[in-house]
Automatic annotation (TrEMBL):
GO cellular component terms attached to this protein's record: cytoplasm
Protein name per Swiss-Prot or TrEMBL: Kynureninase
Pfam families reported for this sequence: KYNU_C (PF22580)
Keyword flag Transmembrane helix: no
GO MF, any single term: kynureninase activity
TM stretches of this protein: none
The species this protein was found in: Alexandrium andersonii
Length: 209
């Protein structure tokens, strides 16, 4: 499950020998709510038959092109990743995702990750220095190699009140009741100034709560 990984940290799924992975695209890839998902299948499974992989995804668009429209009652997969195709994806969804992935390709995941490490470290340092454990506690691993850009905070006070106040200021954070708020400075479009202003506002709100 790479929902919080794709668009967040560099991946080498083939080199790592991963058999299968799936993810959404509306999070860090910014494709929009309800957009299509993505999947990875290692090439060693690319030519597997239905018998080899019972329960695998089989749609008519994954049938080999030569006789796809003959509508026979058996499935002959196309070679490679195309055998896992089901049907035609929504065009507008693909347009949004294409625009996003082009931006990621232009920026480069390695450069984005390098900025992300600094952004999240800056966020972590400011929270610990300016707010402290009296009000919030960071429960995300402190080791940068064990996390992406997101920090999860446990609130000692009224998290809901703080979340509503942040929303009114146009700051989008995610909450998990009863007391966890997830903060994710995205390197593609968030700046160090954004992080500084966020922590300054958060400090005011948690003290008031």
């Amino acid at each position: 499950d790479l929902a919080h990984t794709v668009g967040n940290v560099p991946l080498q799924l083939h080199d790592w020998g991963c058999d299968f992975a799936c993810w959404c695209t509306y999070k860090y890839l910014n494709s929009g709510p309800g957009n299509i998902a993505g999947a990875f299948v290692h090439e060693r499974h690319a030519h597997a038959s239905v018998a080899d992989l019972p329960g695998r995804l089989t749609g008519w668009w994954g049938h080999r092109k030569e006789d796809r429209f003959e509508m026979e009652h058996h499935f002959v997969p196309s070679p490679g990743a195309q055998s896992f195709m089901l049907s035609n994806p929504p065009v507008l969804c693909i347009a949004a995702l294409r625009a996003s992935t082009e931006l990621f390709a232009k920026a480069g995941m390695d450069k984005l990750r390098a900025k992300s490490l600094k952004l999240t470290a800056y966020l972590e340092r400011l929270i610990n220095a300016e707010i402290g454990h009296e009000y919030v506690e960071i429960i995300t691993p402190a080791d940068p190699e064990q996390r992406g850009c997101q920090l999860s905070l446990v609130f000692k006070g009224d998290m809901q009140q703080v979340h509503q106040a942040l929303s009114k200021q146009g700051i989008v954070c995610d909450i998990r009741k009863p007391s966890v708020m997830r903060i994710a400075p995205a390197p593609l479009y968030n700046s160090f100034h954004d992080v500084f202003n966020f922590v300054r506002l958060l400090k005011t709100l948690v003290v008031a709560a």
